[in-house]
Amino acid sequence: MVMKEKEKIDLITRISLDINEVKDIDLLLERILTNVRRFINADAGSIYLKDKDELKFSYTQNDTQQKRLEPGKKLIYNTFSIPINNRSIAGYVANNCKTVNIPDVYNLSGSVPYTFDSSFDKISNYRTRSMLTVPMTNQRDDVMGVMQIINAQDDEGNIIPFSSSDVPLIMHFATSAALAVERAQMTRNIILRMISMAELRDPNETGAHVNRVAAYSVEIYEEWAKGRLLSAKDVERQKDILRMAAMLHDVGKVAISDVILKKPARLTMDEYEIMKSHTYLGARLFGDIQSDFDEVAAEVALNHHEKWEGNGYPGYMDPLTEKPLPGFEGPDGNPRPKKGEEIPLFGRIVALADVYDALCSRRSYKEPWDEDRILEEIRQSSGSHFDPEVTDSFFSCLDVLKSIAKRYPNEDEE
Length: 414
Prior knowledge:
Elements: H1 5-19, H2 25-40, E1 42-51, E2 54-62, H3 63-67, E3 81-83, H4 89-96, E4 100-102, H5 119-124, E5 131-137, E6 143-153, E7 159-160, H6 167-201, H7 207-225, H8 232-247, H9 258-261, H10 269-276, H11 278-284, H12 292-303, H13 345-360, H14 371-381, H15 388-396, H16 398-407
Antiparallel strand pairs: 1-2, 1-6, 2-3, 4-5, 5-6, 6-7
Helix pairs in contact: 1-2, 1-6, 2-6, 7-8, 7-13, 7-15, 7-16, 8-12, 11-12, 12-13
């Protein structure tokens, strides 16, 4: 169906407003690419974000490759960087802040300085033809990244060149997207600065660790949400909040002594009791709830050490008074532990994501476990430590989780 010019302008305006609702950078890139491809009816696309003098391949979509996968599975991709220069198409667009519209990348004019790297097509058995590559610039005309849209299609699915009449609208959208990216990057950086305070105290609490735990949590939640009567809009909104809240699951460790956090040996019982306080101390930071994010961040911080069978901590505690909630005192006068679905869903999800990453990672007191041992431990802990349904969701998206680990390596792995 061919849209009129006014309909296209109205649609691109609605899309621009839609992306401004997303706060997390990773989920924002997904929303940007989904919307622009839908608008222009493109088969695939990628977004590169500027990182110093390079472009970092940050997100991609490809409907043709997606259809080759089993239903419900996601496209796996690895990140990489390319220099900002005139040799590649994306590098040229970023270097010169110019839009490039190519009808067929395999028939480039000899007068252009850039070339098309066909190795990705060969590896993936894909055929790139038409390509529209647009710079994403902020209000200062700084290039934030590059949006590359691939293989425009007509109503019958035939690959066609991108219409020159759509280019100004896409350029306008790219500017709106760049502003949203800048805001989301600012939000991510503020969270990472909070994490860096915890990292000064606990060397395990790194930016890579919290990014992995947060990304794992979103994938597990999305898998859990499949088959349930949840609206797509609610799932997207919850993913955005969960992604940021999960990054702050251990922020309460800023209040724990270095003697305990950096102790290379096993903690004593008294030290362990102090360590456990990071849950409610973290929740206390979000006690003045003014947004859904505050509520979820407090929920995750407080509950990510609860266990499905009911022997986790801190239980039904008021984070402010550190006393049991009325009616939830245990026989010993301490807060009764939560069990089963008494534990909020996001606490159950982050609990598994956090343990998985800890087992995969090197610590001062242990080497990384091998994969078979990790997966067996998680299987054995289903129904005791972990929610069985959350565990099933974890195994259903395990391939994606492994790719996330490569996207956020520890410094000694880069």
